[in-house]
Amino acid sequence: MAVRRSLGLSAVCTLAAACSLTSLDGYFDCPAGHKDCKNPGSSGTGGGTEAGAGTASAGLGANGGGAGEVMAGGGLGGEAGSPPELCTTTQDCTTGTCLRGVCGPAFEVSYQDTPDSGTDPTQAKWIKFQFQIKNRTAQSYPLSSLTLRYYYTPDLAVSQFQALTASAPPGDVKKVTGSFGMTSGWTYLEVGFTSDAGTLNGGGASTGIIKVGIHDQNFADLVFYEPDDYSYLNVAHITLYLDSMLVAGIEPVAPPLQ
């Protein structure tokens, strides 16, 4: 049985019923005026970032959003709120790539937990979330070369994957795949794409919003205890791979507490 423990996250919305959005995300809306969240392009500020997990992209944000947005990147650290590294070309960047005059990770992942109304995360029938992938490089990549992993504790349930919605690209839930594995004691869902899913263009282009779910195979009485899951409400703990190479996020290195 999973043991409850504190998440210790500084970038998590605290309005449990209305806002499960992390302030790491500029792609998704939060309730207007919520102290921990803001809508893209607003003048508010988001939360902090885990050291070494992301890069503050003030003035860049998602799709050119406002200051204070932080995205999960591939190994680009720095203290939260530190000024962005400005650039003309990628050669000007100490790490990462140059886009719209700001250095940052080659790929960014945006994530939002999307529970059913009234769901208790300590007794959830589903793990539901949506994400987008942003390509800050100049090169385009087939979506089939990208995979994303969400890590959780199985809580004795037999997991079943379901693709719920998919905006273009890829635009069709049938082009979104899901499989399960285990690493460092964690179960993970690996979301991928079929060979005909299309292309993620360069220059800051993003996938559409993709919503997926994990549930017990038979929708039985078994439930998920989400607060102790590695990836729950922490975009830095969702990993992205390009041709099996880690390009964003932090992989778990220790098994979950039991």
The profile of the biggest β sheet is: 5 strands, antiparallel
Structural class: mainly beta
Question: How far is the N terminus from the C terminus?
Answer: 6 Å
- Estimate the strand proportion: 25-35%
Helix content estimate? under 10%
Number of strands: 16
CATH fold-level name of the domain at 111-248: Immunoglobulin-like
Oligomeric state: single chain
Mean pLDDT: 74
Shape: globular
- How many distinct helices? 0
Order of helices and strands: EEEEEEEEEEEEEEEE
What do these coordinates show?
- This protein is mostly beta strands and 258 residues long.
- The chain has a domain at 111-248: Endoglucanase-like (Immunoglobulin-like, Sandwich), CATH 2.60.40.
- Helix content is 0%, strand content 31%.
- The protein is built from no helices and 16 strands.
- The chain has strands at 54-56, 70-72, 97-99, 102-104, 107-113, 126-135, 141-142, 146-152, 159-166, 176-183, 186-193, 199-200, 205-206, 210-216, 239-242, 245-248.
- Strands 5, 6, 9, 13 and 14 form a 5-stranded antiparallel beta sheet that branches. A 5-stranded antiparallel beta sheet has the order 10-11-8-15-16, with no helix packed on it.
- Strand 10 (176-183) and strand 11 form a beta hairpin.
- The relative contact order is 0.19.
- The model is unreliable at 1-80 (pLDDT under 50).
